[in-house]
Amino acid sequence: xxxxxxxxxGNRPETEFRCGGQAHIxxxxxxxxxxxxxxxxxxxxxxxxxxxHAERWCHVHGCGRWFNALRDxxxxxxxxxxxxxxxxxxxxxxxxxx
Amino acid sequence: xxxxxxxxxxxxxxARTALxxxxxxxxxxxxxxAEGRFSLRVRDPAAAxxxxxxxxxxxxxxxxxxxxxxxxxxxxxxxxxxxxxxxxRAAAVAADLAGRAHALVDVSHRNVGIDVSGxxxxxxxxxxxxxxxxEAAFPxxxxxxxxxxxxxxxxxxxxxxxxxxxxxxxxxxATYVHGFLTEAALGAGPEGRVRPQ
Amino acid sequence: xxxxxRLSRGGRIDRTRPIRFTFNGRDVHGFQGDTxxxxxxAEGRHLVGRSFKYHRPRGILSHGSDEPSALLSVDRGPxxxxxxxxxxxxxARDGLKTRSQNHWPSLEHDIGAVNDLLSPVFVxxxxxxxxxxxxxxxxxxxxxxxxxxxxxxKAPTEADPDRYANRxxxxxxxxxxxxPAGLAAALAAARTGKRVILADEQxxxxxxxxxxxxxxxxxxxxxxxxxxxxxxxxARENVILLSRTTVFGYYNHNHVAMAERVTDHLPNASGTxxxxxxxxxxxxxxxxxxxxxERPLVFADNxxxxxxxxxxxxxxxxxxGVAPGRRIVFATSGxxxxxxxxxxxxxxxxxxLVDLRPEADCGPELRQLxxxxxxxxxxxxxxxxxxxxxxxxxxxxxxxxxxxxxxHRLLPCDCVGMSGGWTPAVHLFSQSRGKLVYDAELDAFxxxxxxxxxxxxxxxxxxxxxxxxxxxxxxxxxxxxxxxxRRAFTATPTATGFLPVRAMPTDANPTKIRAFVDFQNxxxxxxxxxxxxxxxxxxxxxxxxxTTGMATDQxxxxxxxxxxxxxxxxxxxxxxxxxxxxxxxxxxxxFGALVGPARHxxxxxxxxxxxxxxxxxxxxLFENVALWRRAxxxxxxxxxxxxxxxxxxxAVREGVGIFDASTLGKIEIVGPDAxxxxxxxxxxxxxxxxxxxxxxxxxxxxxxxxxxxxxVARVAPDCFHVTTTTGxxxxxxxxMEDYLQTEWPDLQVxxxxxxxxxxxxxxxxxxxxxxxxxxxxxxxxxxxxxxHMAMRTGTICGVPIRLFRVSFTGELGFEINxxxxxxRAVWEAVYAAGEPYGITPYGTETxxxxxxxxxxxIVGQETDGxxxxxxxxxxxxxxxxxxxxxxxxxxxxxxxxxxxxxxxxGLVTEDPKRVLDEGAQIVADTDxxxxxxxxxxxxxxxxxPNCGRSIAMALVADGRALQGSTLHVTTPEGFISVxxxxxxxxxxxxxxxxx
Lengths: 98, 197, 995
Known about the structure:
Chain A is mainly β.
């Protein structure tokens, strides 16, 4: 069971959280302007890196807040957690920006 | 939204009987009486509303047993009051927050309270709550949403040296949560070589 | 004479407290402090089981949790029969009933032993090779036979009556193992004041110190040091010292699982005490001091009862005061067995020792043992053992420098203590994802790079000298607690070092002998070599092909020998072969411990509404909907479900029905931007909905498929009362919070679940208004003042309510939202007021039938996560003027607008009495070849009392264009014909709603 540092509540066990998949995929401001290929890319295409991954997590059984995390998918080590809408303080080579 | 409140006899889901087994194991589990409760949501709050502080750290409790406020998140509080004071207190909070975008929702009937106390209360809670309930990590005056077994709860540690906890869960989970705690009290012993923390 | 092999003195047993248990029905006498193994050995019993494959007689190999052979069924009373308990782990106590396993008709005379004679047949991969052909024999012949013959022990058949507890705990330093290194680590950590948990699998903490009669620590006997250290730890408030607690799993982020055996050792456990407790510990730092395992020697017939590990002989003599034999031969390739021999000699037993190492390679232990008067044969191998159900002699021979064996010599004996060196217990380190490194000096894999906050100490790290273990443990404990403190210990030097040997040199034809590597799975050196020759070069493949290292002991004693044989066969160095993956659990864990309290009423929360008790009292049957128990139907005496539902349906259409809709999800959406938020999430328009009005809302996921639906009331300009489906409540709230927090954080909106604040009493039927009219205050119920899809606040019986005029039945209907704690009283008042009108309680089944008669969909029944609004005929709800809402862009995706999508239709059968099966497939032409083209499936199907016939809804490709045509639906008896119709079966103009 992972130990995850909620930006508001500190270290909490994984069971209190829900993972929301890849982070930093903003909903297009005008979806109608996207052609089918671009929309399907937005909807369906996600990175699956071996290494550092930026993920969305929600402390659903805690403060209820969504936040982002950098997690190493190999070691499961959390490198950083940071608020939704923010960028990580470090600039890891995010293979997640597919 | 506040509505006219009707506060005669409420039929609570749990009978108010303390368990003799619980007393024997040093863990007392007691369903709470009917109380008023409100979920308060507000961003950029004032320092206080209705006489309750809003500027305390997340996961802390303020007030006393009769009227308490638990900060559960950056813009979320759970307010508990004695039944008789509920309408008055809610009106006072709403009045102080007038003009600010906020939500004050009556959840008195949604929430069910169970008081857990006794020297080994934390041991019983830790049967299903994965948090560190040690003095340093969860001192008196702490409050947070968390889990107990398969149910979501709000866990509050009341002020004072003696371990007194309040478990709040949703109404339909009350039977499970109460049963879980009762079972946990039974499973908390015997001591063997385990000493209380 | 009872306990003929009990030594007259010594041991940590309490000779003043005799105990008695049974083995195969016969009394066994022992003392408090005995294990079942030590008590059996004290009785002179070595034969305790039959081996897994060949049914060979087997005895006790070890004194600890690595025991592969002595597996017993333990009976602690009704419902408390547990197979595969290691005799060396089970504490002997009064009243225990133990039985040997894997034989028929008896342990002494086992028919299955014929397998031993057939052993040339049962080679590695026997099953794979033998049962391949003919293929059709597998189901009927081979598999049943194998299933009957295979398996260790018998599973219990009765429900487990014991209680199992669970405990989450946190500490700064968790120390695994209370041997010398672990005790020193705990002591060092405890002295800093940090929170320490020390867990040890044995009944008594102390590890190797429990059988250390020779060594001194800091100038006093080791046992004194142990007692003083335990007293010190026990007196500290910051230390939790757990015995009988096995650390079995090391998971992410120092989450460590331990199984504590609380009461099995007590003859009279308290009625409420749990049998076992699962500890889930989150430790800031972990010290792994779990010790090491001794390796057996691989020689012909090394599995006879009476052949033990050398250190185990020492343990039985020193700790339990038991002589495993009167005449013991130690066979070794290393120094530690000399200490065992010395102790056995000191206990008055006849001892000889055979060492594979040449004289020159032996250390001071050789001189010491010879000085004690023991015959030592250095440079000797073991050719084989003699005996049947008990070893009677060991055949040894000198080995020249060329590897040739000299003349055989038979050493008569009734016990052999063998030692092929030591293997650090790196299981937990490896589970923590730490990287092992091979240390050639130690001939062992030892902890290398850590992946988590842990450190190893003592023999778990390959440190065998007592003083070094203590110092290393102390340093590890201090460092784990953030202290740089060190402490030097003085202790009697430990005899260490061994010559790695995989299989003992022999002059026999290696294909003719059976030298066991894995005792539990009956895997011999020959089997492993055969597997390699057949092309299994990966150690993981060799493991699965030969089964070496599998089952309950997971190869604790055997793995290094197996690895070494594979490496030798491949002519590779050991690190090149690697190890198999170490997985939890370290030793077997009961299902009970893992399940804990989560059974019976605590298996899952059972959610009930405030009306539940009333429904129970009125004879309702219930169905599970998510975690909820909902009233399904209310049969009257003599009614079956069909009759009850028919009566309930008619009552709603003709009079009035009352229904508990409390489980509907409810969300209070509040804030100045509430309407804008609703507008973005639902396909409908919300900005102009007036307070006091309701609207049926439909919500999509971003992929355009229906997520949920429900009636929404605008309570105030900045407040909506949203309802969701019962099962969708949590999902919808999470969906809303996600968008609010991460996509539109600028919107001033707050979401609060009020599902359980409001109970919902639905009154449906033409007489609904008449029933509630006398009870409601503050609301004008007239149709003009309170039209369909309106919401008003007022009181009923004096209780504040939100009253919705809505209908999920097509009848005039009201839904009374009442604070939950007052719902039962209101329900009873409404019911009483309705009795003159024949008010009828109805359940979910009737609710389903009534809505299906009207063609109303249920999300999750008519939809399955791939259904769009247009698919179910609800495209008209889409607000055309809205530029965007969640899912809108996807409604123009190519596959969503393509022809051929499955659309919601009604189906009626040719035979009106025939009710279709929900989920049944639909085809156009029954003569087409298989596989047929399936057009869709039945989503809902009921007998409709009001229509007087069966009705069904279905999703059918291009279904709306097929109205009037005939299709065919599968049934267990074959196809039946149906006609495609509009899915509204009753009152298509919707007039009844305005009754």
